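Input record (one chain):
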Amino acid sequence: MLSKYLNDELGLSIKDGHQLFPLDSRPIDMMGYKIYTYKTTIRKRIFKRTNIILATYKDPKKVMNVETARAFMSYKGYLDHSDSVKYRKKMKFKRTFKNSKEVIRNYAKYSGVHGQTT
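The corresponding structure, as predicted from the sequence alone:
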């Protein structure tokens, strides 16, 4: 019935190995997130990589290179769109974000590659 509605009304099809399950029983795991009915978390692997960068550069005296700053900016999106407020405060996220923005800005300013990616 569901597949007939999707096909007839919306022009969509369901692949053969589809699974239907109640959302309370397990989370939806897609695009780097685990989506529960009451919270959204980051996948463990992505969280570990983000945590390494945040723990390493928690000290403002530690200098960040451009590649790390760019990686951190991509992980920032995961943290922004998940339920990680306490973690962000604990790891001094704003300070690390500000430092990585500055690294990228200075690299673009002094290397002449403003707006380009390497």
